């Protein structure tokens, strides 16, 4: 393996650091993707009339590569990322990326940037595939040209306070997405609407924001970039993916671990504000956050502090099993881990 880059591995954070290379493929009006391959990490040229700039016709994925305890680099459920990426593409009228192209593009990019993969106790290599409408189009309609990009960057913890339990604010001032819109897709436009609410949340002294369903404000939607789980006794509940909820891969992994490993009663259904405020435990899930415990929730000036300590929580148990599978510290009972080479 290549000698590691001269990076402050102890203070990575969740930032975009320039790496060696990225992968590019292009698609024209024929709908056929042409593999350009690895190119030096750098800027992408776009027409000012491109549909991604004017109308937000773009999607992305987020996954990670890990240096496992077996001293090899592995992926976690990469096949599921490929499936979700194309589901997002179809919703935004972007031609499907052939499955083999997606997988090989991710693998080639990671293998060419192995010296940017942190040791397992330091972090992981974040992988960001993108599909963008790059052709010029003045009218509101799909582009006639597209670019597929994969870049990678080493990351540490998504949250500044690491595993300290998060203080979350439930907002009824903003909605994240309309229930019959594109919330289930990883569309680039889904996230810009959370920037101002999150800025105000941080300024108010909280760590994270929880949105309510746009059609029924008595039930939960998501956090700004994570799914939410509520545990009461032995029942673990998360909002169902119908409508606005992103079908998170970490979300699905947690559901399976909770049921198969910890014998919890798992439910995908509406979660009310009352159920949230009366929960035993609450946590967020996502590729970036993994499993993030919540220490308190504020809604309409009422704050609930969860009494169960993190060290004694089911949240901790689920998180540790998930991370141990990802890092090959324990046997993978689900067949989720894929070696990079």
Tell me about this structure.
The protein has 8 helices and 17 strands. It has helices at about 50-55, 80-90, 100-110, 190, 195-205, 250-260, 275, 315-325; strands spanning about 20-25, 35-40, 60, 65, 75, 125-135, 145-155, 165-170, 210, 220-225, 225-230, 235-240, 265-270, 280-285, 290-300, 300-305, 335-340. It starts with 20 loop residues before the first strand and ends with a strand. The strands form 2 sheets. Strands 8, 9, 10, 11, 12, 13, 14, 15 and 16 form a 9-stranded mixed beta sheet that branches. Strands 1, 2, 3, 4, 5, 6, 7 and 17 form an 8-stranded antiparallel beta sheet that branches. The mean pLDDT is about 95. The protein is an alpha+beta fold and about 350 residues long. It folds into 2 domains: about 10-155, Aminotransferase class 4, branched-chain amino acid transferase, N-terminal domain (D-amino Acid Aminotransferase, Chain A, domain 1), CATH 3.30.470; about 165-325, D-amino Acid Aminotransferase, subunit A, domain 2 (D-amino Acid Aminotransferase, Chain A, domain 2, Alpha-Beta Barrel), CATH 3.20.10.10. About 20% of the residues lie in helices and about 30% in strands.
């Amino acid at each position: 393996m290549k000698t590691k880059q001269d990076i402050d591995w102890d203070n990575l954070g969740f930032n975009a650091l320039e790496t060696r290379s990225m992968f590019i493929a292009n698609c024209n009006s024929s709908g056929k993707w042409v593999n350009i391959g690895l190119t030096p990490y750098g800027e992408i040229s776009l027409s000012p009339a491109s549909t991604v700039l004017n109308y937000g016709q773009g999607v992305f994925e987020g996954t990670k590569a890990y240096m496992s305890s077996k001293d090899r680099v592995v992926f976690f459920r990469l096949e599921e990322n490929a499936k979700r990426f194309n589901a997002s593409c179809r919703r935004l009228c972007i031609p499907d990326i052939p499955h083999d192209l997606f997988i090989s593009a991710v693998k080639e990019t990671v293998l060419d940037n192995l010296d940017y993969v942190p040791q397992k106790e330091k972090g992981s290599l974040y992988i960001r595939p993108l599909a963008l409408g790059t052709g010029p189009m003045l009218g509101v309609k799909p582009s006639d040209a597209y670019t597929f990009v994969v870049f990678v960057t080493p990351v540490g913890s998504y949250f500044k306070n690491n595993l300290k339990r998060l203080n979350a604010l439930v907002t009824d001032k903003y909605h994240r997405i309309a229930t019959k819109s594109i919330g289930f897709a990883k569309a680039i436009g889904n996230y810009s609407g959370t920037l101002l609410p999150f800025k105000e949340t941080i300024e108010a002294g909280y760590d994270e924001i929880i949105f309510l369903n746009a059609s029924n404000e008595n039930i939960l939607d998501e956090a700004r970039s994570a799914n939410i789980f509520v545990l009461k006794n032995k029942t673990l509940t998360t909002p169902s993916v119908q409508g606005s909820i992103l079908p998170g891969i970490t979300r699905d992994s947690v559901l399976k671990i909770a049921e198969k490993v910890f014998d919890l009663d798992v439910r995908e259904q509406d979660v009310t504000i009352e159920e949230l405020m009366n929960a035993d435990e609450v946590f967020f899930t996502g590729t970036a956050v993994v499993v993030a415990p919540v220490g308190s929730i504020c809604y309409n000036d009422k704050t609930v502090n969860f009494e169960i300590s993190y060290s004694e929580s089911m949240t901790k148990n689920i998180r540790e099993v998930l991370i141990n599978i990802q890092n090959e510290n324990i046997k993978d009972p689900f067949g989720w881990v894929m070696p990079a080479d």
